[in-house]
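Re: folding output
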Amino acid sequence: MRILLIEDDDRIRSDVTAALEASGYIVDSETSGEEGWFLGDTEVYAAVILDLGLPEMDGLTILKRWRQAGRTMPVLVLTARGSWTERVEGIDAGADDYLAKPFHMEEVLARLGAIIRRSGGQASPVIKVGETELDMRQMRITVRGVPVSLSPQEYRLVSFLMINSGRIVSQQELAEHLQSVHFERESNAVEVLVGRVRRKMPTALIQTRRGFGYIVETDPAP
């Protein structure tokens, strides 16, 4: 899944990026409020980690503009300003969660995972669809209790579809969640990736809806 990180502190940005990538996320990062706002307004992200104290455009303004424009991706706000009035203002502006600096990286990952799951209608970090189980904490997918060996990109594909189970996801949306904005997206990349996953999975988890995209049914056939 693709995450947008907007943070102007070089050390924090580097540390958070490394932790996210180690947890299987694809990260697009920006230091400028203006550039970050533009990416969030024009690209598709599973979630955004947004600092409030940014140059050119502050985080609260960015968040308000996104919500006014109908952008609904979940947003985790980071800030060095921890007063309750500012937290309320951020949540009222459309933030899904709030984390004051300094923070533990484990908490960032836990809160990020939670807002992503909630956006897909899931509450638990362990998602079960039929005989397939996704454990987001261990980045592991099992079928009937047996782990399935998947590449990082294959894991991202399956986990995104399972989080959004019951919803048809277009090839374009999948492509946007599986590759960074800095890489050229090949037209048949998703189709090839789905084919690889199907050969590895012992169950018919991913179904094709011709002309629409792919879906993981909430009650799939074995």
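--- second protein (sequence, then structure) ---
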Amino acid sequence: MTRYRLRTFALELVMIAVGLVFAFPVYVLVNLAVRRPSDASSPIAPTTSPTFDNFGAAWEQGALGGALANSVLVTAGSVVVVLAVSALAAYPLARVTARWSRWTFLLVMLGLVLPFQLAALPLYQTMRDLGLLGTPVALILFYSGLQVPFTTFLYTGFLRTLPRDFEDAALIDGCTPLQGFRYVVLPMLRPVTVTALVLNAVAVWNDFFTPLLYLSGSSQQTMPVAIAGFVGQYVSDWNLIFAALVISVVPILLVYFALQRSIINGFAGGLKG
């Protein structure tokens, strides 16, 4: 058995300190979200008379119901497209050893190097010419193209660590390469798929600039843009802002906690590979 030493105790103290550092902003967020507008005490001081009226007021004044639905639609649509395209693209890139495969992989990886701001204006003009401005479809197309290189990189690295024995057996039994991928490889990609799902979902859900650009002037807004509407030039309803932030955080937290074990297994599998 491993003995409990002074080093172990010191590591535990460091871990507790790090946990408190990360928990402090969450405490401030929840503390201000349930604070009454008349309470002008320090944000660090615990609220003496908490209220949940801020959540109802934020939901109504910010039209968060429609914004939440738009965010769910954009996030779910983008993640589904990104995972499907990236998994299908990564399979030949990881399994084919020809020179064109390596060059194609490097070409895809350019998407990780080039900043998307370089194409912001041409993409905006393209969406305008297609008549997609002000619709969630524009955001889904944008995020799909933006996130595919990174997700393909994850899938390719994971696929290169998997043995080919099961695939070869499926091909010998008469499966086509696509059938072998669907019935043999895809189930083995579950850990990295869940990891990529959460990473992409968080990136899309929290983005502010792109929805502000592509949905500007329309009634359809996502959660970050709707929350920003509480901040005016002269007035800022901070209690409503923090209440809206809590509402915005809850869906992603639920997804994370539901898939927590698979996410950890995905990171552990990637590290082992």
